[in-house]
Amino acid sequence: MTAAMPTTVADFIETVNRHDEQRFLNAFADDGFVDDWGRVFTGRDEIKAWSDKEFIGATGTMTVTDTHVDGDRVTVIADWRSTHANGLSKFVFDVAADKLASMTIREG
Fold first, then answer.
1. Are 73 and 91 in contact (CB under 8 A)?
2. Disulfide engineering: 94 pairs with which of 14, 51, 56, 101, CB 3.0-4.6 Å?
3. How far apart are CA 79 and CA 10, in angstroms?
4. CA nearest neighbour of 60 among 52, 70, 72, 68
5. pLDDT at 1
6. Over the stretch 28-64, which tens digit does the pLDDT of each residue have?
7. What is the dihedral of CA 75, 95, 56, 23, to 10 degrees?
8. What is the pLDDT of residues 81-90, one digit of tens each?
């Protein structure tokens, strides 16, 4: 069952789908990180370098199929489409106030 998605995550997905690099980077806390199938990118510079090739720079889009909210952890199943990779993926977001502390990506 799809749960109501918190605004922080909903805004992030909209930002990704618009390919807005600045808003994408600003969505993360200063010490935020991305864990992409075990490869961890911490801080703005590392996240940007990864994203330039594999996320925003790959014109990725997320079509949400399911959402689960457990406190500050939000799990989103989405059909990911980009010039880098495609397929159903699980995105787990840890939210800290109005920022993302982390985004973990695995097979959906």
1. no
2. 101
3. 15
4. 52
5. 45
6. 999 999 999 999 999 999 999 999 999 999 999 999 9
7. 140
8. 999 999 999 9
- Is this structure's pTM higher than 0.90? yes
Sign of CA dihedral 97, 42, 27, 7: negative
pLDDT confidence bin for 98, thresholds 50/70/90: very high
Using CA of residue 97, residue 98, residue 104, residue 106, what is the dihedral sign?
A: positive
State CA 29 to chain mean position distance: 13
For residues 41 and 56, the answer to whether their CB atoms sit within 8 Å is: no
Please list the alpha-helical segments (H only) found in 1-108.
7-18, 21-26, 43-54
> Hey, what are 61's tokens?
């889009």
Are the beta carbons of 59 and 53 closer than 8 angstroms? no
